[in-house]
Amino acid sequence: FRNVDHAFRIVITAPGYIPYQYSSGPALGLDESLASALEIFPNPVKDRLLINWGLEEGSMALYDLSGRLHQEHSLYPGSNELDVEALPDGLYLLRVEYQGQYTQEKILKQP
Known about the structure:
By secondary structure, the protein is mainly beta. 5% of the residues lie in helices and 50% in strands. It is built from one helix and nine strands. The chain has one helix at 32-36; strands at residues 9-12, 20-23, 38-41, 48-53, 58-64, 69-75, 78-83, 90-98, 101-109. Mean pLDDT is 83; it is low at 1-7 and 24-30.
């Protein structure tokens, strides 16, 4: 057998739910440099989540723990704001995507 350097990525999606991704080979998904370009505060949050983004335009989506999509927006360089006041209290995932790479952060919504 030869050492074959192939990788693949499978993405399963359903409207309104967080995509499930599986990657083989070298890391094709989570990029630590994305996490370092992202600053989120306050967390826990009551009404407005402030998001500082240090790269070019990307996208962000907020999901509850069942995987249901609650909000989806473009993410611009610099300061961004996400209004979460109307959301039920609980734990959410903020998923940031940039050029096919992604990172996720847990967000706690409090009263």
